Amino acid sequence: MPGTDLGVNTSGELSISNVVSPGPGTYVKVQVAENGLVQQGFSTLSSSDIGELDYSQITSGQVQPGSIADGAVEKETLADYATSYMQEGNPGVAEYLGQLWYQPSTAQLRIYARGSAGNQWLPIGFGALQANNLRWMGTFNADTNTVGIVTDFGQSAGLTAGTTVPAPSDALGGGYLVCQVGGSNMDQLDIASATFTPGDWALCVSEAQGWIHIDVSATSGGGGGGSTQYLNDLLDVTIADPGGSALEGGQRLAYDGTTGMWVNDQVIECGDF
């Protein structure tokens, strides 16, 4: 007698009456009867069919944000410089909005954010300090009212070489441009009627107070209207006799590395050569 699912004809030939559902094919998983015959095939696997895998076996695809639980990424998991640049030079375009840039020499921290001028490095944590410290942002052409050379400070403030000198803003406060080509065609607040000569400064005070013309060649207070007093009001500048002839006689501002202040002096020590 043939067994279950087996048959035999008069010639003695055996046959199998087993039927596979849904039909012949190649399957990733099958269901087998107690006598060893395949009864059903499955084209997909369920999560319970897959055992634990080592991460080295996963070679493609991406981890979706929803797959990472809140608080799952701990501080020990982050690599050095994963969230912040630590360097002197401007990093340029960051990998993402919210990335930080710490500049060791100035102890200033910036964040890559979307501002009025597009994506740029904006000051954080020292907002008031940034607006009240002297920073050289580059040069300008007073005849064409355009920005010339741009420093790292100027780039961080959104300045671009060849463009019009921007209107005063709080973000530019404390920043100054040095005149490279003289002229009287500036149209910014408070310097529209000023005549600049090479070497003069255009210092931005704030959005409300505008730009200040600092005439370094003048013989009365370093600029019309007591402009040295504006310099003296900055947090990192100390001007001797700001109401008098502070910058008279060829004096220049020099950075004092001991005190961290900019001071006016007749002789600037340049060290050994």
Write structural notes for this entry.
This protein has 273 residues and is mainly β. It has 3 domains: 6-44, no CATH class; 80-125; 126-265, no CATH class. It contains 3 helices and 16 strands. The chain has helices at 127-130, 152-156, 227-232, and strands at 6-8, 14-16, 29-32, 38-42, 84-86, 100-103, 108-115, 118-124, 135-141, 146-150, 175-181, 201-206, 210-214, 237-238, 252-256, 261-265. It has a 5-stranded mixed sheet. A hairpin with a 4-residue loop joins strand 15 and strand 16 (261-265). The protein starts with 5 loop residues before the first strand and ends in an 8-residue tail after the last strand.
Summarize the structure.
This protein is mostly beta strands. The protein has helices spanning 127-130, 152-156, 227-232; strands at 6-8, 14-16, 29-32, 38-42, 84-86, 100-103, 108-115, 118-124, 135-141, 146-150, 175-181, 201-206, 210-214, 237-238, 252-256, 261-265. A 5-stranded mixed sheet has the order 10-9-11-12-13. A 4-stranded mixed sheet has the order 5-6-7-8, with no helix packed on it. A 3-stranded mixed sheet has the order 14-16-15, with no helix packed on it.
* N-to-C CA distance: 112 Å
SSE series: EEEEEEEEHEEHEEEHEEE
Tally of helical runs: 3
Task: Enumerate the strands of the largest sheet in spatial order, edge to edge or round the barrel.
Answer: 10-9-11-12-13
Relative strand content = 25-35%
Q: Which structural class is indicated by helix and strand composition?
A: mainly beta
Low-confidence stretches: 127-131, 219-226, 242-246
- Radius of gyration from the alpha-carbon trace, in angstroms: 37 Å
Helix content: under 10%
Mean pLDDT figure: 80
Overall morphology: rod-shaped
Number of strands: 16
Q: How many separate domains make up the residues?
A: 3
Largest sheet: 5 strands, mixed
